[in-house]
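ok trying this again, last paste got cut off
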Amino acid sequence: MLHDSIDTTLVPTFPPEVLDEVKREGVLREFQPGEPLFTEGQHDYDFFVVLSGEVRVTRRLGSEDQVLAVHRPGAFTGEISLLSGGPAIATGRAVGETRVLQVKAEAFRRMVAECTPLARFVLQTLVTRRQDAEAQIRQQEKLAALGRMAAGLMHELNNPASAARRSAEQLREECLEAQHRALAHDERLSAPQREVLAELMRDLQSATPLQPLDALAQSDLEDGLLGWLESHGMANAFSRATTLGTAGVDLPHLEVLGATLEGEALEVGLTWLEKTLLLTQLTDVMDASTQRICSLIAAVRQYTYMDRDWLQEVDVHAGLEATLAMFAHRLRGGVTVTRDYDGHVPKLWAHGSELNQVWTNLIENALDAMKDQGNLRVSTRLCGDEVHVELSDDGPGVPEELQARVFEPFFTTKALGKGTGLGLDIALRIVERRLGGRIRLQSRPGDTCFRVELPLKPELPH
């Protein structure tokens, strides 16, 4: 019989009578990191109860290994094939040094035949595990459907968006050329006056783009331009000042024009300059708008990992940025996003679209908690052979008595009708069962942090 130190603190999910039976029948075993407890296709392997460490269960699909489950202290594994009588459908390996109670296959089958407390407990747990597996399959199907829908939509949007952007660039060049041809044939201006206008336009085009002025500085600039235009008797002074100021024209530029152009020539020259700058501004808006569409298309492609293999090297930072782009409509209001990315974080092996679904659920929860008003902090760290990603918000926090339940299916702290209670459950399934990682929660009023701990590469069979 095993030492009495093995109690409900090590296996808290086991009822006392079940624990007594396991202690009576089980043998204490220790497995080294990567050592298999059972392998896919193996017959007559044993039943295991995890006391410390982790057991990662994987199944070979083609050239990849899919993580089916991660069993931590208090969980058991090895029961499915023992009950079905067939070979093992997956491989179970120790993650780190792992201690287990090993119950021989013959003893386990005898307990099932006698319907002992352990057998009844295992069968009840199997029902829950089957429901979990079905939920996981449904989630994978939803992600696959999202990928197919996104692929079709992005294909339809990408071609016209790219064409519109090319057209905007060409339109800008054609407008400038047409304006310069018109200036060259304008007999109301002398050759030196036309050259001054053309030179000013070239200077504005070739100038290094400056940082946008703040609202006060921009207003001061436009007020100065307005005063100059009014003092020289120019019509539509207000709208002209706005157009000229937005294009980077300042008082020294106008002084150069005023020294060369007078009276009607100044009016003609300013009209030409205003219309030329207005055309370039409109084409710039078109170019920026189509560029935004192209950026969103790229973000959706990154978010859904369209046309990628099932398991791929994933850039965590690119995935986080793609997910944040999906929430741009909620972030641009009263949410301040602070990024603290570790530049030493390498790519990790994962399911890209599923990992982005984790970021989606965590970010959406943070925004809901803050009611789209507050601070969202996103940070990454390389910790040994793992990447740790933290998503923090300064919302009201999760009450301490509810923190242990937040990952339960259908449990939600949101108002009635505002949440399904599945977001964190889905995130937990993806991180633990598909990626072999962990999610941890720390929360107090004004500081709630979810930390996702991901291995750089799942431990695969040797």
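PB: full thing came through this time. The radius of gyration is 33 Å.
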